[in-house]
Model the fold of this input.
Amino acid sequence: MTFIPNPCELRDLRDLPGCTVIALPPEIDFCNAPGLYARILSAVDARAGRLRLLVLDLTGTHFMDSQGVRLVNDIRHRLPPRALVRVVAMPGGVAGRVLELTGARRDVPVYDNLAEALES
Done:
């Protein structure tokens, strides 16, 4: 496992009109999922009145276990009523595969790149 100095740190957070893109860290597991959840919810709450779309960018995530799936699902359930969540994961990457194997892709749309996620 790679040493990550601050595993609960979001890699990036960008605001676009009506949309927030959050890039998640290289690893998501039981050690950092609760901290990530708190940081993502804080970002969502700060934008609640204007947030229509939340994009979770997993393209830089090379390890994710079931806690990552739980994180995505919990965030989906905590979004404001009219807000949607989309996930970006590299085709053939670990995060995308985990989401596929667990069936999470049925509930959360997963896109191959950010441009696709923002267009749909």
Remarks:
- The two ends are 35 Å apart (CA to CA).
- The first helix runs from residue 33 to 46.
- The chain has four helices and seven strands.
- The helical segments are 33-46, 66-78, 94-101, 114-119.
